[in-house]
């Protein structure tokens, strides 16, 4: 089979039985998983990462027998999706964040963490493929996949070679696929649409329907279930919940267990604790869509109970998850309701802080209000100062002052921010024991390092990073941030080492790889830079800056077609990107299509009138088009923007010479010669101009 014929597949519509028949007709390679069965992605089974959990738990034992290296490399990803494997897969990269007690957690994962995990899982599956030929992975119920599985399946389809692993994604017609998965399948999979499913009658009973998590398509079983009175249905759900719990799989507590308990005989008493535990787990792991789902379901059960204390336990998680997901209006509504329901100082402090973070961090820029955020945080600080418990008073005061420091940075007063954070660090070091609130004390020193860096006090920033890295050596972002500072100081080898360490400690993180590629490029390591930018785009096809840099590398190496492809891909994401329009201008100029080149440079200048490469490039093609005056106008603007660039001075002198403006040309060349005394072209032109002006 020709390589171009290998494709992933998307089979949609029909019943599960007809989809299975369609999959068999594809004549795909043998199944990847030992069971040979499709992987069910329905979130009702295991919640977040239902499909990924099934895949990973099936693969890990075999991979460990064959070669443990992929499991060690992707231990964070494996344990994030399948905690049940903790006895087989030690986590070698624990951080203060992952180990923090719930009461001491003040750092939460970024929204993009699940996308990084998905990319790591795709690499794990790729590296775990057996050596004896291609395999097939069939995933069904993709339309019901939780957001984490959507990212995982999309990463598999996008990044794994279908000649090695053919991914067959199946979905019914009941609900549309998540757009993120749909767009990947539309681009990379062969589509098979099946006729609308007819009712399936298999003679099942109510228990078989419940035992199948109410997912069976058997109309007889569903009818039997619907015919039961509510108490009988509840009893079946309780029975199934007990069975699933007895299996001992942690991840069932994120899916099937709460589903059945919510429909059992005591949903308030039995389901709410399970939903709370699920929300806790998902919050600390960064599965924020799931947190919102559990909270919404809990609120429905709590409605009318008057249990405001339990409501708040869900609400505080719900608000944080909504904030991180940029659903800030919904988050603020939760905090407003909490203030209405509660007189507890802890609730009001938390709401003041969380609302302030909406106004200084999470809201769209147009909806931010730093003064309102500062006022809210001042109230939280004042309340915290009245707490009777020594440890809690010290911690809460530092926590809210740290929030105020962020506001001061955003208000343009980094000196005040530094004072506040330093005060927090000193207060906690003085008032707490060394082992108390280790995570937040590390966060404070990390934040102070950032403020130092913003103030240009780089040595002091490095001193703080040395402390936090010693305390939290597996936290990747510390190395990324320190690497950026080391780069500013010109300590290239140390910066590269920090970037490499950060990449080893984290699931695939495109920003780290991009920074390393950019540094390699500045140091002349074009091969290393190109490899890094290739990987960034493989991880994140929407990373525009990587297209900019890679297009430039292709252009410099004469790969004009590749440069155009990257420029067009980047412009599809960012149509006003001036740098990419410059790339197209340079490509057209190389092909002597000066009209098209000038048009591309026009777009670049319109997008960024201060971009020197656009102005100088347009000047060159305008000159080629016989428009010397317009070319000189562009070069004059370019020189005004970068007066110490000898190449620009030389090029403007060339245009002056073309107009026989020898004195102006001489003035530019004398400055250029002073800036680049060893440049032979400048020296030769200078000699000519001196002769022309009688100054030889």
Can you give a write-up of this model?
- The chain has 696 residues and is mainly alpha-helical.
- 67% of the residues lie in helices and 4% in strands.
- Helix 31 runs antiparallel to helix 32 (612-624).
- The radius of gyration is 31 Å and the shape is globular.
Provide a brief overview of the structure.
By secondary structure, the protein is mainly alpha-helical. Strand 3 (135-140), helix 8 (147-159) and strand 4 (165-171) form a beta-alpha-beta unit.
Topology, element by element:
Elements: E1 8-12, H1 16-24, E2 39-40, H2 43-46, H3 50-66, H4 69-73, H5 75-81, H6 96-99, H7 113-128, E3 135-140, H8 147-159, E4 165-171, H9 179-188, E5 189-193, H10 206-211, H11 219-227, H12 230-247, H13 256-262, H14 267-285, H15 288-302, H16 308-324, H17 328-341, H18 345-362, H19 370-384, H20 390-410, H21 414-431, H22 438-454, H23 458-471, H24 476-488, H25 492-505, H26 510-522, H27 526-539, H28 544-556, H29 560-573, H30 578-590, H31 594-607, H32 612-624, H33 628-641, H34 646-658, H35 662-675, H36 680-692
Parallel strand pairs: 1-4, 1-5, 2-3, 3-4
Helix pairs in contact: 5-7, 7-8, 8-9, 12-13, 13-14, 14-15, 14-16, 15-16, 16-17, 16-18, 17-18, 18-19, 18-20, 19-20, 20-21, 20-22, 21-22, 22-23, 23-24, 24-25, 25-26, 26-27, 27-28, 28-29, 28-30, 29-30, 30-31, 30-32, 31-32, 32-33, 33-34, 34-35, 35-36
What does the average pLDDT come to? Answer: 94
Proportion of helical residues: 55-70%
**Principal-axis shape:** globular
Instruction: Please give the radius of gyration in angstroms.
Output: 31 Å
Largest sheet: 5 strands, parallel
Helix segment tally: 36
Compute the separation of the termini in Å.
Answer: 73 Å
Tell me the total number of β-strands.
Answer: 5
- Which class best fits the helix and strand makeup? mainly alpha
Question: What is the spatial order of strands in the main beta sheet?
Answer: 2-3-4-1-5
Ranges with pLDDT <50 over ≥5 residues? none
Strand content: under 5%
């Amino acid at each position: 089979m020709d390589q171009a014929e290998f494709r992933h597949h998307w089979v949609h519509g029909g019943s599960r039985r007809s989809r299975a028949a369609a999959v068999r007709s594809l004549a795909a390679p043998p199944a990847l998983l030992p069971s040979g069965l499709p992987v069910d992605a329905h979130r009702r089974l295991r919640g977040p990462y239902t499909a990924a959990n099934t895949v990973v738990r099936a693969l890990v034992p075999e991979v460990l027998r064959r070669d443990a290296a992929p499991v060690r490399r992707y231990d964070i990803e494996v344990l994030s999706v399948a905690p049940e494997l903790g006895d087989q897969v030690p986590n070698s990269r624990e951080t203060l964040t992952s180990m923090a007690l719930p009461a001491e957690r003040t750092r939460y994962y970024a929204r993009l963490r699940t996308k990084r995990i998905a990319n790591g899982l795709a690499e794990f599956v790729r590296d775990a493929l057996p050596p004896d030929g291609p395999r097939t992975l069939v995933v069904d119920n993709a339309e019901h996949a939780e957001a984490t599985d959507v990212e995982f399946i999309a990463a598999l389809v996008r990044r794994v070679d279908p000649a090695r692993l053919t991914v067959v994604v199946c979905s019914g017609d009941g609900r549309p696929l998540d757009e993120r998965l749909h767009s990947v399948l539309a681009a990379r999979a062969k589509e098979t649409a099946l006729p609308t499913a007819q009712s399936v009658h298999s003679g099942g009973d109510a228990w078989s329907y419940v035992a199948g998590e109410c997912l069976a398509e058997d109309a007889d079983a569903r009818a039997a279930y619907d015919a039961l009175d509510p108490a009988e249905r509840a009893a079946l759900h309780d029975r199934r919940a007990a069975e699933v719990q007895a299996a001992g799989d942690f991840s069932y507590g994120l899916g099937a267990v709460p589903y059945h308990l919510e429909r059992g005989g005591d949903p308030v008493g039995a389901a709410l604790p399970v939903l709370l535990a699920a929300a806790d787990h998902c919050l600390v792991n960064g599965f924020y869509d799931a947190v919102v789902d559990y909270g919404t379901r809990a609120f429905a059960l709590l409605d009318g109970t008057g249990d405001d204390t339990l409501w708040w336990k869900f609400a505080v998680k719900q608000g944080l998850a909504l904030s991180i997901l940029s659903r800030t209006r919904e988050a603020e509504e939760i905090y407003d309701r909490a203030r209405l329901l509660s007189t507890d100082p802890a609730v009001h402090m938390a709401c003041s802080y969380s609302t302030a973070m909406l106004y200084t961090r999470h809201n769209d820029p147009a909806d931010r209000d730093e003064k309102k955020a500062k006022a809210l945080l001042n109230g939280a600080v004042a309340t915290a100062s009245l707490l009777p418990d020594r440890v809690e008073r010290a911690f809460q005061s530092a926590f809210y002052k740290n929030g105020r420091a962020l506001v001061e940075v955003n208000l343009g007063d980094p000196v005040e921010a530094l004072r506040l954070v330093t005060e927090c660090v000193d207060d906690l070091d003085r008032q707490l024991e060394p082992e108390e609130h280790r995570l937040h004390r590390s966060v404070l020193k990390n934040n102070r390092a950032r403020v130092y860096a913003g103030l240009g006090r780089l040595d002091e920033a490095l001193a703080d990073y040395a402390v936090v890295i010693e305390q939290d050596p597996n936290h990747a972002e510390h190395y990324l941030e320190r690497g950026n500072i080391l780069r500013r100081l010109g300590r290239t080898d140390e910066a590269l080492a920090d970037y490499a360490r950060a990449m080893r400690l984290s699931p695939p993180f495109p920003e780290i790889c991009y920074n390393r590629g950019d540094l390699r490029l500045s140091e002349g390591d074009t091969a290393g830079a190109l490899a890094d930018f290739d990987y960034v785009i493989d991880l994140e096809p929407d990373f525009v800056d990587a297209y900019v840099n890679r297009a430039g590398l292709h252009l410099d190496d004469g790969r004009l077609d590749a440069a155009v492809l990257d420029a067009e891909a980047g412009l599809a994401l960012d149509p006003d990107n001036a740098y990419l329009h410059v790339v197209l201008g340079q490509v057209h100029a190389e092909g002597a299509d000066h009209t098209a080149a000038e048009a591309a440079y026009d777009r670049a200048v319109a997008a960024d009138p201060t971009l020197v490469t656009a102005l100088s490039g347009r000047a060159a093609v305008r000159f080629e088009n016989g428009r010397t005056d317009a070319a000189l106008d562009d070069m004059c603007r370019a020189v005004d923007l970068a007066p110490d660039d000898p190449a620009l001075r030389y090029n403007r002198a060339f245009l002056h010479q073309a107009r026989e403006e020898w004195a102006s040309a001489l003035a530019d060349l004398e400055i250029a010669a002073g800036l680049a005394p060893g440049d032979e072209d400048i020296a030769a032109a200078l000699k000519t101009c001196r002769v022309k002006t009688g100054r030889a």
